[in-house]
Specification:
Layout: H1 3-22, H2 36-54, E1 57-65, E2 68-77, E3 86-93
Antiparallel strand pairs: 1-2, 2-3
Protein name: PepSY domain-containing protein
Keywords: Signal
């Protein structure tokens, strides 16, 4: 073999070994709790029902209060005749 091919192979081996040394270790993905998605979806469904009831727009967040998971729903109802918007906050169980 000529010198060019030998140098080329040496460079490839060097680059591969260097990139392997800097590669981040692969971490196994953590399993999410089984009820993570349905509870969050439940909060959103509750928020939409309350928004329809009050005639406004709603957002919900899942929180842990007193050891229980609850949905904190904030509803904003636009004011009429130039009045300010009304903000209503309700806390309901997540189940």
């Amino acid at each position: 073999m000529n010198t060019f091919h030998t140098l080329r192979r040496a460079m490839i081996v060097l680059l591969l070994s260097a990139s392997a040394a800097f590669a981040a270790p692969v971490a196994a993905p953590l399993d999410a709790p089984v009820l993570a998605q349905p509870v969050a979806a439940n909060c959103n469904a509750i928020a939409q029902q309350m928004a329809a009831q009050y005639g406004g727009k709603a957002r919900a967040t899942l929180q842990n209060r007193g050891g229980q998971q609850v949905c904190v729903v904030v509803i904003v109802v636009e004011g009429k005749n130039g009045q300010r918007a009304q903000r209503i906050e309700q806390v309901v169980p997540a189940n």
